Amino acid sequence: DAGVIQSPRHEVTEMGQEVTLRCKPISGHNSLFWYRQTMMRGLELLIYFNNNVPIDDSGMPEDRFSAKMPNASFSTLKIQPSEPRDSAVYFCASSSPGLAGTEQFFGPGTRLTVL
Amino acid sequence: AQSVTQPDIHITVSEGASLELRCNYSYGATPYLFWYVQSPGQGLQLLLKYFSGDTLVQGIKGFEAEFKRSQSSFNLRKPSVHWSDAAEYFCAVGDGDYKLSFGAGTTVTVRA
Predict the structure, then answer these.
(1) Which among A15, A75, A87, B82 would be 20 to 30 A from A29, CA to CA?
(2) pLDDT tens, A50-96?
(3) Interface test with B, best of A46, A104, A112 (most B CBs within 10 A)
(4) Which of helix, strand or coil describes residue B69?
(5) Chain B residues close to A50, C-beta within 8 Å
(6) Degrees (nearest 5) of the Cα angle A77, A20, A99?
């Protein structure tokens, strides 16, 4: 299994631009998570999908952030417009219903820099 | 709500020495506990997990952790550290549904 795949691995953009991060979960996993990691706030859950449906988006910072999961093998996290304070590493993780206790498998992350 | 405290921000250990990373959790019910490791520029990799049963849990890369309910702790140990163990380590507690709460992490530096 290839694991959770994220693209791009690095993204540098200018303030005000739209940014789209992509994630392919592990095949057969029906739960998908987007996290943000910063020095100040650590790892924060942004949004959780189950069977392609957003279940908990309470961690999405503001309306500039949106996430979609059009099918079981693909999800996007979009920031529009981007701001310098959005600079962080964004992780996607997936989980299977057969795994007890919410064991999650993480992708390599996308390092976003907004200038 | 659950929470995790990792008291040590940074630990330096000599190669071949033992390592112990502390983790204290707060959760009202039976916790699901995890240790993840993050190497520079990489994602998080699961080292080990505890759900129930034997309180001493073995993981990958020679790591083990012990669950102590009376102390609300889940400390990670390794008897002999290798240079490749230099990384950031995260303790996490799950609610048994989907939420994981992570600690702030402990950075481990290994000196030759």
Answers:
(1) A87
(2) 999 999 999 998 899 999 999 999 999 999 999 999 999 999 999 98
(3) A104
(4) helix
(5) 98
(6) 35
